[in-house]
Amino acid sequence: MSVEVLVDKARLVCMQKGSRFTAIREKVFRLLAKTESGVGAYELLEELKQTEPGAKPATIYRALDFLTEQGFIHKIESSNAFMLCQHFDHQHPAQLLICEQCGHVTELHSHSLDHAFTEQAAKEGFSISRQTIEAHGICNRCKANH
């Protein structure tokens, strides 16, 4: 999906929820939409400073918190990075395949894996509120280059 289509979709979701998609939030969203890998907050801050020289760490963290709350992005816990979710118009479980060589992240939506995981958690008396499963390895592009 193109960045413009994603931005339009995000605006619509915000309008439907009564949330404000401010200029800063949109700029951070656009920065995330341009990458296929996870991006750290400070890397995003440096990019944002090119158009918003007064941006501070709090600026980026507030925007990331908003984008996370709206379901627009996933946090990659293992690398403390963020990535845009292409399917943010509905709640869904996510499984992330993270290439250890190039950093490319592929988002999967296996309902059978989610069901099995939720079922196992329930057997332990645990109720999952949200989940993202991360797997690290080597992507096809990197395998092909060796």
From TrEMBL:
Q: Read off the CDD domains from this record.
A: Fur_like
The cofactors it requires, by name, are: Zn(2+)
Entries under InterPro entries matching the protein: FUR, Fur_C, WH-like_DNA-bd_sf, WH_DNA-bd_sf
Q: Where in the cell is it found?
A: Cytoplasm
Keyword annotations: Cytoplasm, DNA-binding, Iron, Metal-binding, Repressor, Transcription, Transcription regulation, Zinc
Query: Per the record, GO CC terms?
Result: cytosol
Keyword Cytoplasm part of the UniProt annotation: yes
Which residues does Zn(2+) bind?
Answer: 99, 102, 139, 142
Textual note on the cofactor: Binds 1 zinc ion per subunit.
One biological process GO term for this chain?
negative regulation of DNA-templated transcription
Example GO molecular function: zinc ion binding
Is the keyword Transport assigned to this protein? no
Q: Which domain of life is it from?
A: Bacteria
The entry describes its oligomerization and partners as: Homodimer.
Family from the record: Belongs to the Fur family.
What protein does this entry describe? Ferric uptake regulation protein
Give the source species.
Alkalimonas amylolytica
Higher taxonomy? Bacteria, Pseudomonadati, Pseudomonadota, Gammaproteobacteria, Alkalimonas
The record's gene field reads fur
